[in-house]
Amino acid sequence: MTRPVLLSGIQPSGQLTLGNYIGAIRNWKALEDDYDCLFLLVDLHAITVRQDPADLRRRCREFLALYIACGLNPERSQIFAQSQVRGHGHLAWILDCYAMVGELNRMTQFKDKSRKHADNINAGLFNYPVLMAADILLYQTQLVPVGDDQKQHLELTRDIAQRFNTLHGEVFTVPEPFIPPVGARIMGLQEPTAKMSKSDDAPTNAIYLLDEPKTITRKIKRAVTDTDGEVRYDPQAKPGVSNLLQIFAAVSGRDIDSLVNEYAGGGYGRLKGDLADAVVALIEPLQARYNEFQADPALLDGILTRAAENANARAEATIRRVHEVLGFLQ
């Protein structure tokens, strides 16, 4: 039986965090048996912000090594760089002709990123959602895991697909959002009201998957809490403590209520110390596997090449159909 196609991706920028692992990568592994999974290193999206070429290439391989160190099976999932499949950019131009300027003007992420990168508000940043639509529609994707920051982009993808299909027949599969099992939303250690980011300007705000154990311990012990010393889960009144409890529950498999009961009345020192030990215990074996894969660049390049070959074949089938209905010479 053909499995439903599921596609997701992360920009190879910054450093992968514990939040990326808990909120995305760990969940991806659970999907491999039931879905035809495509996991993209979205390097075309990354260049809306200026990138150093050597760093970008290094991060693509680094992210791949971390994905498989986290448990993804490249024999079950296709993991490749977006730029390895020329169809992404090709289809994006075609879809640009079916996306309305008014729709793109309403994209809140463009407004947010324009404020953050006021000296580089480029056309790629504006057209970013159309390239994302091409990523999805190129593979006849049925399901797309989406967070709050991507819901608007997926709705635009659906609108473009339906508009194209109305004019030219059933060319594209109209994707549906995939709502994964409820998982932890990991916030910053220094700014616990904002999501932990792999491109954070303050490195002490995030736990990176490649941080040394002593660095992880230091960051957790310096995490923002509050002054009353009460261990209680209340994201509104106590965002810092609640975030630490959320992380602890995610890495230990325990529920938050049992953690609150264990650490109530003991202040924050013991909670932070035990949490640091739990995070290090999770990350150290992951780092050992990562180092093994990084020591074999031929293995990593082989995984990327095979997956890109598979992706190109899929993409070509969609491109041929699009060319046919548009009247392009074959």
Distance between the termini: 32 Å
Structural category = mainly alpha
Report strand order across the widest sheet: 1-2-3
Mean pLDDT comes to: 91
Strand and helix order: EHEHHEHHHHEHEHHHHH
Q: What is the top-level CATH class of the largest domain?
A: Alpha Beta
Query: At the third CATH level, what is the topology name of the largest domain?
Result: Rossmann fold
Count of all domains: 2
Task: Give the radius of gyration.
Answer: 21 Å
CATH superfamily of the largest domain: HUPs
> Stretches where pLDDT falls below 50 for ≥5 residues?
none
Multimeric organization: single chain
Helix content: 40-55%
CATH architecture of the largest domain: 3-Layer(aba) Sandwich
Quantity of strands, as a count: 5
Share in β-strands: 5-15%
With helices defined by DSSP (H or I, 4 residues minimum), what is the helix count?
13
Summarize this, please?
This protein is mostly helical. The protein has helices at 18-31, 43-46, 53-69, 87-96, 101-105, 108-116, 123-137, 151-168, 213-221, 239-252, 256-263, 269-294, 297-326, and strands at 5-10, 36-41, 78-81, 143-145, 176-178. The chain contains 13 helices and 5 strands.
Task: Walk me through what this model shows.
The chain is mostly helical and 330 residues long. The protein has two domains: 5-183 and 297-326, HUPs (Rossmann fold); 211-291, Orthogonal Bundle (Tyrosyl-Transfer RNA Synthetase), CATH 1.10.240.10. Helices cover 54% and strands 7% of the residues. It contains 13 helices and five strands. The protein has helices at residues 18-31, 43-46, 53-69, 87-96, 101-105, 108-116, 123-137, 151-168, 213-221, 239-252, 256-263, 269-294, 297-326, and strands spanning 5-10, 36-41, 78-81, 143-145, 176-178. Strands 1-2-3 form a three-stranded parallel beta sheet. The protein has a two-stranded parallel ribbon with strand order 4-5. Helix 1 links the parallel strand 1 (5-10) and strand 2 (36-41). It starts with a strand and ends with a helix. 38% of the residues are buried.
